[in-house]
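Troubleshooting: if your tokenizer reports a length mismatch, compare your output against this known-good record of 113 residues.
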Amino acid sequence: MKNTITVNDTTFEAEVLKSELPTLVDLWAPWCGPCVQIGPVVEEIAGEFAGQFKVVKLNIDENPAVTQKLGVRAIPTLLFYKDGSLRDRVVGTPGKKSIIAKLGALRQTEAAA
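Known-good structure output:
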């Protein structure tokens, strides 16, 4: 079962910037080996934290407008959004624990607000 949401240039604003949940964005491409490697980890996190966080995937080849606007120069890139603002960015293939820690930091800022 797929737990992530696929977004594109048209749906990015509604699904990410206007999301009521903190959101993890996985920017990837099918030809990118590290992207394919981290994909299952992102999917697993999406399932484990369903209802607490939104996890979306954006194929950079098919969505050049958002990719350019975000200044993405390397993939995989993981973006962490809360309340429509970019709060953190990781380029490369962090481990699952690292991704979860960054999501936890989003939750902590939510609790402090």
